[in-house]
Amino acid sequence: MTVLLAVAIGALYACGIYLMLRRSLVKLLLGLVLISHAANLLIFTAGGLRRGAAPIVRAGEEALTRPHADPLPQALVLTAIVISFGVLAFALALFRRVHQSIGADDVDRMRSTDT
Amino acid sequence: MLGEVLTGFVAAAFAAPLARRLPRLAGPILALVPLGILAALTWRYAGSAAPPRTSVAWLPGLGIDLAFRLDGLAYLFALLICGIGAVILVYAGAYFAGDRRRGRMLATLLAFMASMLGVVLADHLVALFVFWELTSVTSYLLIGFDHEQEKSRKAALQALLVTGGGGLALLAGVVLLAQAAGTWDISALAGQAQTIRASPLQLPIIVLVLAGCFTKSAQVPFHFWLPNAMAAPTPVSAYLHSATMVKAGVYLAARLNPSLGGAAAWEWALIGFGALTAVTAAAMSLRQHELKRLLAYSTVASLGVLIMLVGLAAPEGGADAVTAAKAVVLFLLAHALYKATLFLVAGSLTRATGLKDARLLVGLRRAMPLTFVAGVLAGLSMVGVPALLGYLGKESAIAAAWERHAAGPAMLALVLAAPPLVVVGLRVGVAPFLGSRRAVVADGAGTAHEVPTGMWVGPVALAVIGLVLGLAPMLLNRVVSETAAAVHGAPVAARLALWHGFNAVVLLDVAIVLGGVALWLWRSSIDRWTRRLARLAAFGPERGYALALEGTLAFGRVQTRLLQSGYLRRYLLVVFLFAIAVVGAALVAAHRPGAIGAALGEIVHVHAEDVLLVVMMVVAAVAVVHSRSRVAAVIALGAVGLAVSLVFVLYSAPDLALTQVLIETLTVILFVLAMRQLPFFVDLSSRRTRVRDLVVAVLGGGLMTTLVLLASHVQLGDEVASAYFAAEAVPQGHGRNVVNVILVDFRALDTLGEITVLALAAIGVIALVRGRTGLEARR
User: Fold this and answer.
1) What's the rounded Cα separation, in Å, for the pair B313 and B29?
2) How many angstroms separate the CA of residue A108 from the nearest CA in chain B?
């Protein structure tokens, strides 16, 4: 699966980068989401992939029994997912506001601070 | 001695409020500060046989101390800095009468004074450098004092760039010097002279240190900033740009002469540049008519003479070197006294008449009798009339050059440079007061009157001191002996007298004065001859400065246009390309083709659902890029997120899967809400741009794939951090879901920060959605 995921991560990065280089602000945001997914998967994969071994201590035991999935990358990715959602929500509200003000989706028309 | 130096800075902080409360008395009251400092230093100096030294640890880890040492050379400079400083503060207080900037001027002058004291007292190379730079900064502020005028701002910047550039060279020089000598203490350097001489760093040290000295002391080819610095108010010119700061370069050269002298490069650089400066600036002074510019060029010439004299005072030289060391001291002292006086007299003349041109000022002796006394005493001192200190200074300089070589370059330079200086002394100090015509006043109304007390008392005091010391030079025996010893690096016994008997030096002196008078009498024909030469100035070093400055600015503009295009996607392109280059270089450097092979080998362990998920993810991602409908793009984006959460489900991350599904749902809803009214996507970029971006994107994606393949065999943390969490989640965190325990217990503060970020984002969203922009509100 690592090989397949590596290809998927690369594809997500490529799509994300391409979208972020577009002039449309919406596409830029779509690209940002794709790159967030890719980065999360990158960290997740780097921690090692394991099936059926969730990092949850079984009832009656005091510690995780091996083999178990690495809990640390999961905690990091969880934080990243939530934070990137916060960023996206703010960016979307900003986009809506900008669009109301200048009536365009084109980043090139947002170069001047005066509307 | 840290106290004495800091007193000046502290007093500077109180100068502005004081000037507001007691506007008329602020100058005289603040003048007590330098006098008090001088008294304290004199107490220390007279009270001990060996030079007193104090040291306070500053950055002990780096071996940097605020060390100060008061020997003859330092004391002589402290005397000039504090004594003339007091005069200048009184003068500036009166000069800026009724000007609301008086407090600022007095404060900056005090700060400069304290910095300059730091330079001459410092016994640690780094401390010296720091104070050296502080004098450059305060000089910048003082030259640009009339900051509303472009001329002042340009002159200030020029002075700062030239002396600051030299300061950088000096920093490199002192660091190398400390490396070569093995000590930071300036007083210990002379003992290491042999070590320094044997070091391969000797030549670089000399070049760098002299670059600092020559820029600060306005030696050719860096001389041009000093005449331009005359844009400063007159008290500043008198203090910084004739009496003290510009002598910092001479001070440093003299201070390091015992440690670096003896090298041919050192000696000939000092003599050569000093002689060239003296002759060039003296010749240029012939073409000036404005009082302050006349004085400025003559100052540059005098600085050249001083630098040359330091070069003649070789530490292992014979009697001629001793004479030169004494000449450095006498000429320095005499020059500071008469030149500061002449500057102040020039300021008073301009204040009283509104005129700056020496050709227009005439017959003022009745109107301004006290200024006349100061002007004549100082002017004749500069000319070199016996019984005035200036005579001793000039006589000793000629003697030093004569003893070295009667037909050497130093002698030649003195003979060429001295007559024009005689002219300057006469034109500024004497000529404005003579003549039978009544003085004209610039605005044509009324006549010139004597300046207020504060503006004549200082110049008269300095001029009288010059007379007293000229008549009774034996008063200077101790300070000249000890200062000359510091310059020469060996004990010197000075026995000064008013008259040293009739000899070749006296004859030369007379010839020089006559030469000056002749230049003055035939000034119109000389003016015609030098007019052609003046055109050469267009190719002078100032042109080089202007070109360098313009070039730097042009380079900056081009670079800004390239990097700061104002187009977001261009910035992003640079960021992506840079990231690709850095990560790519790191991957190439790691060079582990085996790891990729091993990772690829695992492709056999693939489940059907894995293939399905990845295909779904990639197809959806491509659909996001490709779709023309915004809603379709958002739905495809949701599909990508769903596939990602399914990966989490399959690979033992239930918490991630839950969060991802929730967040993905919200994301899709938000997107749809934010852009429900928008039309379809259109192609905004050209085909070429899209192809370029595609190449970058594919490069970036490919790189990340390689990175994942390489990283899949490096599992950091599993044995350290993760093992700790796995073992301690239940005993310490009392939770069975280890990921949750990490988030809410082990890394609780991080999570708190995360919640704060989300709360801030929520507040921002509310403000953006509900608030109105200022523009809309006005509509």
Assistant:
1) 41
2) 6
